Amino acid sequence: MANEAVKGTRDIILEAGHKAITAKSYHACGLKEILDLAGVPKGSFYHYFKSKDDFGLQLIENSTDGWNQECRAKLTDRTYSPINRLKNYFNDKITYFLEHGLSCECALPKMALETSQLNEVMRGAIKYSFDSMASVLAQTIREAQVADEINCKDDADMLANMINSALQGIIIRVQIDQSIVPLEQFVALIFTNILQEKSSS
């Protein structure tokens, strides 16, 4: 029971931090703001985190775990062919924004821009996060190539990194335009021009 309580309070603080950082930025958010949002006393923060940077690092790791679970759930579902797993994964991105709003953001891209040149440990953690997501995507692309579902025979790791990086930029454009169209166009482009899906006929 004690371990469950510890985990619960820690997760509440991390969730509050994620909300605060996505609404503003990592450096613009003070601990008081995060703890007020979490509804926990300041002393509780230092029970779970050594410093704000330690909190930031754990937030990155927590977000990475969530992203990896999402990626693996869609991209390793063997009830679908590799190309359909890829389609499900990217179409879910569109559905997510339509259901949660076009201004919905993730803390990781913001933290990447803010901390990558200032904190080497955080930069490394964020790099691992992006690399791990690209790795799962690359494996599915590789399987689609082996299954002869796509014409593109370029290196799967290169394709996954390129698509993943471009996706981050497209998500920014969605928020700027307040329109889902850029993401819809990009997802269509992935299959027609980048991966070059083969006709089923």
From TrEMBL:
GO molecular function, one term: DNA binding
SUPFAM superfamilies: Homeodomain-like (SSF46689), Tetracyclin repressor-like, C-terminal domain (SSF48498)
Boundaries of every HTH tetR-type domain copy: 7-67
InterPro entries on file: Homeodomain-like_sf (IPR009057), HTH_TetR (IPR001647), Tet_transcr_reg_TetR-rel_C_sf (IPR036271), YxaF_TetR_C (IPR054156)
Keyword annotations of the record: DNA-binding, Transcription, Transcription regulation
Lineage top rank: taxon: Bacteria
DNA-binding region: 30-49
Protein name, as recorded: TetR/AcrR family transcriptional regulator
Lineage: Bacteria, Pseudomonadati, Pseudomonadota, Gammaproteobacteria, Alteromonadales
